[in-house]
Design a protein that fits this description.
The structure is a single chain. With 236 residues, this protein is an alpha/beta fold. The protein has 2 domains: 2-39 and 78-233, Ribonuclease H-like superfamily/Ribonuclease H (Nucleotidyltransferase, domain 5, 2-Layer Sandwich), CATH 3.30.420; 40-73, no CATH class. Helix content is 40%, strand content 17%. The protein has 11 helices and 7 strands. Helix 1 (2-12) runs parallel beside helix 11.
């Protein structure tokens, strides 16, 4: 299904790719795991795998009542009570065409997944080349959950101009807040971020996508890719 999604994307971007890729938006959402399936721990990031190794080593030295829990791909989240979740990221273009999707652990913050989904994008977006011409500069529109210095630098190195709503919890200094304040033109461009919210609403209107009933994450990702293809086919 992922191959089919890529074929639709290649066909879609054959003509007028610059205006289509002018603004790109990323957002994430929780997916409730209804089946109570395997945790698919091999899908964890390298950083989380290293944490699990350290927790196992520490547990050998601790009594049972003080042992720590390992991090899992499908797990509880403090914002969502007792249900088990994982997370999905999607990236869309100016017109809501879904360019890429990415699955990650429920325990991870949104800001840590940005590099992974952007690195999945094909090289034919010519982001670095277009960054040298103001007319074709590509903007990345993100909410405050992705607001970190690391993410801003990463996007600039990729050739994007990041428009990220600043997270006031990151600093108390007014000068810092003024530095990341958007101009009038940037605020107008940032309004285009609503398309990613609409795309997620269309995807999660399907019960089989809104909640995971599959035995593996790979099966769910196949269904997710198929749903993205159905939405994208209407954009062609």
């Amino acid at each position: 299904m992922m191959r089919f999604l890529k074929r639709i994307e290649i066909f879609y971007l054959k003509r007028d790719s610059e205006p289509k890729l002018k603004t790109q938006s990323i957002d994430s959402s929780f997916i409730a795991n209804k089946q109570g399936t395997k945790n698919n721990d091999y899908l964890l990031s390298d950083k989380e795998k290293q944490k699990n190794i350290k927790i196992r080593q520490d547990n050998l030295l601790l009594p049972k009542n003080q042992q720590k829990w390992e991090r899992y791909f499908i797990d509880y989240n403090r914002y969502n009570g007792r249900k088990k979740y994982f997370k999905k990221d999607i990236e869309v273009d100016t017109y809501g065409f879904i360019l890429q999707h990415h699955t990650f652990s429920a325990k991870r913050p949104d800001s840590e997944s940005l590099e992974e989904i952007v690195n999945k994008l094909p090289p034919n977006f010519n982001t670095l080349r277009n960054s040298k011409v103001n007319r074709y500069t590509q903007y990345m529109l993100l909410d405050s959950g992705y607001c970190t210095k690391k993410n801003r630098e990463f996007l600039k190195n990729k050739g994007y101009k990041p428009l990220i709503r600043y997270n006031k919890r990151n600093t108390k200094y007014k000068k810092k807040l003024a530095e990341y304040k958007m101009t009038k033109k940037e605020k107008e461009i940032y309004k285009g971020r609503s398309v990613v919210e609409h795309s997620f609403a269309w995807l999660k209107s399907r019960p089989i996508i809104n909640q995971n009933y599959q035995k593996t994450i790979l099966s769910y990702n196949g269904l997710f890719s198929f749903s993205c293809s159905l939405i994208n086919s209407k954009r062609i």
